[in-house]
Amino acid sequence: MSVLWTILAIIFILNTILAIITVFRQPRDIAATWAWLLVLILMPVVGFIFYMFTGRGLSRHKIFSLQTQVEDGLAAKIHVQKQENAAQRLLPATELSNESTELVNLFLSLDKAPLTKNNHVEIITDGHQKFKMLFRDLRAAKSSIHIEYYTIYNDRIGNQLMDILKQKAAEGVEVNVIYDAWGSQGATKKWWSQLEAVGGHVEAFFSSKHSLSDFRLNYRDHRKIVVVDGEIGYVGGFNVGDQYLGRLPKFGYWRDTHLRILGEAVASLQIRFTMDWNATVGPDEKLSYSENYFPEVSNAPGNVSMQIVSSGPNTDTEQIKMGYLKMISSATKSIWIQSPYLIPDDSLIDALRVAALSGIDVRIMIPDMPDHPFIYRATQYYARLLHNSNIHIYLYRNGFLHAKTFVVDDHIASVGTANLDIRSFKLNFEVNAFIYDKDIANQLHDIFLNDLKHSTELTNEMLRKQSRWLRFKQHFSRLLSPIL
């Protein structure tokens, strides 16, 4: 027995030493460091296998590939306005304020995201509405269709999309599709081959297609972008799958928020897609600047000003999170947020607390059902934490809430793919539209109010009724939150 204990002690010591060496080999924030140490030490062998697929950072080559795409044939289209003049020159007088000017300048500095104007924006909150509009636009495409989704399922709606893309490719329209292999389970190469057989081009996002030795499970392409003929753009929370139309009993009705955009901002979405495509494909398949991809906007379709902002693990500036922090700090009246996952880091927690304790109306709406157990328990933990700081937490109960929206003072808004969680800020490739328009902000305000009719506010009594076992799961999941 003493020999067995000695062997176990040696294994534990070696495992601990290897865990420390493994975690500290690359720089990462202290919360993620401790989370990985916990996993590697408490789960010998299994923890290392998990780390191999989800814990390693991106290679220097891949980071360089993504960061240099802006210079690879697209610089002719990217005219970044000077920080000191951009907002004053381009924002309508009705939208000009210190808050909007500072946010515009922040994104010019962090993301080189040009401020675009003269956009027409339609807000979509229902899956049936979204796919009806999207399929109509795809069928009318004349020159190019560019699609990038985290999830494209091989199911009923996925095959409807496939049929349209095959038809357009057969007609001679250029069809390029990027999908995330992890998020699109079931959409196999065999399934995609039917599109390629008629001239379409399909690629799994670069972080999900390489060999086992270089596989990075943790870095997902969470973006949802469609650009048709360089003139119509879509961005937001909806993926492609039957569940997004409320067809899965597990989730019921699916409440999401998406944008259909006409105007100058479509070029920014096109640039983002092209950069992701060029980072994924081989040197002979890269896209270069073309008038077909970036047609001139001759007539102003609307008057909405916005910036398309991207973030991902290829940089350490966390552009979208910085935008959220700036919006929170600039609020004077209200901050209304919708997110399916609520796992903020310390900086966001402090910012939200300061706002609420300063008398600002801070409301956060989350779903009242899980789609990922650990993430949901961590969300419950942070919901309780923020509730105790005078922040109103609402549980949406009419199905599953997947919208990612942010509205400040009914003046500035954000809609996109980034959740209010650490994964979206540090690990996923995301894209958001930051909008400077009172009408759009008011529409999102009204949508939030309508969702309140199907929600219940978290109360002290509800928290007291939570069992000790549930609270233990919440606390344990919170320890893993930096790597969930």
TrEMBL record:
Molecular function per GO: cardiolipin synthase activity
Question: Which keywords does this Swiss-Prot/TrEMBL entry list?
Answer: Cell membrane, Lipid biosynthesis, Lipid metabolism, Membrane, Phospholipid biosynthesis, Phospholipid metabolism, Repeat, Transferase, Transmembrane, Transmembrane helix
Q: What is its EC number?
A: 2.7.8.-
Membrane-spanning parts:
35-53
The cross-references to Pfam families, in alphabetical order and at most eight, read:
PLDc_2 (PF13091), PLDc_N (PF13396)
Active-site residue list = 222, 224, 229, 402, 404, 409
Task: List residues of the PLD phosphodiesterase domain.
Answer: 217-244, 397-424
Q: Where does the record say this protein resides? A: Cell membrane
Entry GO CC: plasma membrane
Question: So what does this thing catalyse?
Answer: 2 a 1,2-diacyl-sn-glycero-3-phospho-(1'-sn-glycerol) = a cardiolipin + glycerol
NCBIfam families membership: bac_cardiolipin (TIGR04265)
Q: What does this protein do?
A: Catalyzes the reversible phosphatidyl group transfer from one phosphatidylglycerol molecule to another to form cardiolipin (CL) (diphosphatidylglycerol) and glycerol.
**Family, per the entry?**
Belongs to the phospholipase D family. Cardiolipin synthase subfamily.
Query: What is the recorded name of this protein?
Result: Cardiolipin synthase
Task: Give the organism the record lists.
Answer: Candidatus Paralactobacillus gallistercoris
The organism that produces this protein has a lineage beginning with:
Bacteria, Bacillati, Bacillota, Bacilli, Lactobacillales
The gene it comes from is cls
